[in-house]
C-alpha cells in the first residue's frame, strides 16, 4: 500500500492560529506518525479519513485520489474505504458486542435481530476470540475486549487501510504491551495496511516501519 499525502490547513481558535503543512509518502504496511499532543497528528489522520477537509493539497492511496484541491476532488468518508479506530473506541453503549461489530457493515446491518450469525461478523468474532461476550454491552467488558471489538468493527467492512488514533493510550501499562503484540501479530496475519498516530516511543518501536515525526504542524522522517 502506497500513501501519498501533501496537505495544508489553517485553523483559528480565538487569537491563536495553527498552521498544518505536512507532506510524506510511504510504501509500507505500517506507517506511524509520532509526536507530542497538539502537533497535528490527529488532524492529519482525520484528513485521510475525510473528517477534516484541508485547504489545499492531495491525499492518495495506491494512486486512488481521496482528496485533491486542484482537481476539486474530495471523496465522502463513506467512499474512501478506510476504517478509523478512535482513541476512546467510540463503541455504542446501548448495542451489544455483536451489534457494535455489525455496525461497521452496510447501513442497517446493525439492526439485524441476530447480528452474530452474519458471516462477516462471525469471522471477526472468531478472529478476536469474542465468542463468550457477543451478547454483552461495552460497560460489561474489559478495556482490552473493548479494543478488540472496536478493531473488529473497523475491519468488518474490509477497508483498504486502518487508521488508529493513539490506540493504546486508554489502557494500563501491562495491557498496553499485550495489545501492541496482538495488533502487530494481527496486522501481519491479515496484511491490513495501517496508519497509526502516537506520542509513545514504545508504539513506534513495536509497530513502526515507515515513521514520521510531527512537530508544530510539520513532518520529518526519523532515522
Protein architecture, described:
The protein is α/β, with parallel strands linked by helices and 223 residues long. Helices cover 28% and strands 30% of the residues. It has helices at 41-49, 97-102, 119-127, 143-155, 173-190, 201-207, and strands at residues 2-13, 16-27, 30-34, 56-61, 64-68, 73-74, 82-85, 161-165, 194-198, 210-215, 218-221. The chain has a 6-stranded mixed beta sheet with strand order 7-8-9-3-10-11, with helices on both faces. Strands 2-1-4-5-6 form a 5-stranded antiparallel beta sheet, covered by helices on one side. α3 packs antiparallel against α4 (143-155).
Radius of gyration based on Cα positions: 18 Å
Q: Distance between the terminal alpha carbons, to the nearest Å?
A: 21 Å
| Total helical elements | 6
Beta-strand percent range: 25-35%
Number of E-type strands: 11
Q: Quick one: biggest sheet? A: 6 strands, mixed
Helix content: 25-40%
Q: Reading side by side through the largest sheet, how are the strands ordered?
A: 7-8-9-3-10-11
- Oligomerization: single chain
Secondary-structure-based class equals alpha/beta
The global form is globular
Uncertain residue segments: none
Q: SSE string, helix = H, strand = E?
A: EEEHEEEEHHHEHEHEE
Average pLDDT works out at: 89
Structure keywords:
globular; 223 residues; 6-stranded mixed sheet; 6 helices; 5-stranded antiparallel sheet; 11 strands; alpha/beta
Task: Give the secondary structure arrangement, pairings included.
Blueprint (H helix, E strand, L loop, with lengths): L1 E12 L2 E12 L2 E5 L6 H9 L6 E6 L2 E5 L4 E2 L7 E4 L11 H6 L16 H9 L15 H13 L5 E5 L7 H18 L3 E5 L2 H7 L2 E6 L2 E4 L2
Parallel strand pairs: 3-9, 3-10, 7-8, 8-9
Antiparallel strand pairs: 1-2, 1-4, 4-5, 5-6, 10-11
